[in-house]
User: Fold DUF4375 domain-containing protein from Haloferax chudinovii.
Amino acid sequence: MRRKPVPPAPDSLDRLWDAHRAVPLIPGSEDDCCGRVAERLDVTPDEGRDWLVFCQSLGLARGVSRGFERVRDHPDADDLRIAFEGNVFGAREALDALGDEPTSADAVFEAFEPTVPNWERHRDPDGWESRWRDRVARLLDWAVLFDAAEKRTDGYVAVAVEDAA
Assistant:
């Protein structure tokens, strides 16, 4: 299942590892886990939930009957990139819009726009585009952190898998 939450990309993966460490080893309720992540990262509870679900998408946390628990494995950069592309809604589509020539985040959004679910457009007819443009920018920034893209002064370019290794 591909999940939608994408927190703002930090300057380094250290913040992701902080979020990972905030997920309890012994399962806690979803609210407890979100609160714990939010407190450790000094973000709102809703942002804590986004981080928790994002960690789940990357295979760093898992949902269990009682809530969530931390996955003890430490995936390498390739594993994170693969999980990001496969489990985060829009990551693959944003990356597919990139090539060898620099592409702006706006151009990536234009290519991505047809994949925005109709219910998102109808839920907020005046604000969906701004939210999804921001989402695409976040996806691109995470792609850079996961070595799936490179940010240049004039846009983003795709990084071939063999180049990322």
